[in-house]
Amino acid sequence: MYVSDCISVNEKGHLTIGGADTVELAEKYGTPAYVFDENEIRNNLREFKKSIDENYGGNGLVVYASKAFCCKEMCRICAQEGTGIDVVSGGELYTALSVGFPTDRIVFHGNNKTHDELVMAVTNNVGRIIVDNVTELESLNEVAASQGKTVGIMLRIKPGIDAHTHDFIRTGQIDSKFGFALETGEAMAAVKEALKMPNIKLRGLHCHIGSQIFDLDPFELAATVMLDLFKDIKDQTGVELEELNLGGGFGIKYLKTDRPRPFADYMKKVAETVNSYSAKLGLKTPFILIEPGRSVVGAAGLTLYTVGAVKNIPDVRTYVSIDGGMGDNPRYALYQSHYELVCANKASEKRTETVTVAGKCCESGDLIQEWTHIQPVEPGDIIAVLSTGAYNYSMASNYNRIPRLPAVMVKDGESRVIIKRETYEQVAECDI
Ligand SMILES: *Cc1c(COP(=O)(O)O)cnc(C)c1O
Question: Is residue 68 within 6 Å of ligand 1 at its C-beta?
Fold first, then answer.
């Protein structure tokens, strides 16, 4: 009925997540607040893991892209589920390290890691550093040498596939700040340089073709383009690389009309391509890494707000103001992302109204959704915005010095705080 299986309506007509009544959660923890369902998150991770087991005989690793939602509890959950974790900054790395995340399962991304971040990664024996450019390759080799270590790396390749166009295209993606270009020979040159470096162990290659992708073809095409490069490398250097990282980007449901393929389908089809194409090229199937972010947490989370003023402008529109906004969910302001909204305390009523839900920031563009269908709402009602688990908390800001929201984790109807609500003191803490 809703965009996620963990969302339902109880006998009081209240919206539930993971068996917990969202109206009661709003009372207990206050609003605005993010709420996540732990079972949904764990099930998603397990489904990706199962697909590696079934399609690659377990010869691979699921790496949760933590930028989608990074906090200590998410790192603990990934550690318990036996997945890896992908970090893109010293802050995300710090968070993973602070819960004792197994460092051999940490993957460090980023197109401009600072020297300090490289030192931090090498010092902590991060398993794979995804090297983005030659400058980084050289400084990483120096950092590793200075510590007398050999570091495992993968090179980020631009496979020349833009999955975001309507009919995805194979060229043109050379214009990206991420990674080494294939067409220009830059990628091959970097491979050869990495193979020569004494303190670098080139484990394989990485690509990530975009996000919220519903089609299969771009993933399959990316895999074949990457395997062609594996073959060229073998022919030119005699080295058969061991690992292929296919990135993330699997689409999720934001609206009921969205029709993402089930993960299992994706994985099966892409694995068929990887297995058969490797064989065709005379390569053994590499160790496969995948990096799902949004698809692990996106539909497992929602945001609860309390309605304040309702402003009906005749013949124009109705603005429903809530106690959060672009500070906790910048995605509509950034790229007009669609969401499903529900009045949590009237969830069994019909959605007869068309309204614009506005935040409390001093910015006309601070909207959560325009012209959205919802139950008749009045001041004091609770509005739930669904599928906000990914790229909401992680993109939150303190614009207007509004404290960041807490995150509540629900499991089998029980709830607990996993991120505390920020206080005014904390917002001003670094001020001198
Ligand atoms: C953002 C990102 C991911 C995760 O993407 P989703 O769309 O959230 O699955 C994976 N790998 C890399 C390198 C990324 O930048």
Answer: yes
- Residues 224/179, Cβ–Cβ less than 8 Å: no
Q: What is the DSSP letter of 44?
A: H
Q: Give residue-wise pLDDT tens across range 38-80.
A: 999 999 999 999 999 999 999 999 999 999 999 999 999 999 9
Bridge partners for 155 per DSSP: 131, 205
Per-residue pLDDT tens for 260-272? 888 888 899 999 9
Confirm whether 362 is a catalytic residue.
Answer: yes
35: enclosing H helix or E strand: strand 33-37
- State which ligand 1 atom lies nearest to the alpha carbon of 156: 13
CA atoms of 152 and 199, how far apart (whole Å): 9
Q: Is 18 in the pocket of ligand 1 (CB under 6 A)?
A: no
Q: Please tell me if the CB atom of residue 206 comes closer than 6 angstroms to any atom of ligand 1.
A: no
Rounded Cα distance, 308 and 320, in Å: 7
Burial of 342 (0-12, 13-18, 19+ CB in 10 A): buried
